[in-house]
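Changelog note: in this version the structure field was regenerated for every chain. One regenerated record is shown below for reference.
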Amino acid sequence: MTSNQAVRNMLANRIEHHMTAADSKNQTPLIDATMRRVQDITRRLLKASNLADGYWALAETVAMELHNHFPTKRHVLK
């Protein structure tokens, strides 16, 4: 399916699709880095536990919880 066909399909089915700016990666480096870390943790959890890919959502939830508890330079207690 080409890009034009996809747009026509979305319009025909009244699907609202939000596009991001072409250079949005440059605008959100912290978010991108965080998501890469969470996805890396998710892959490591799935590999270490030998679970199927069907557990991806659960592993990603656990990975986000773990990431939220990791200390960072911004949140170090003084």
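Spot check on this record: Helices lie at 3-12, 24-27, 29-49, 56-69. The chain has four helices and no strands.
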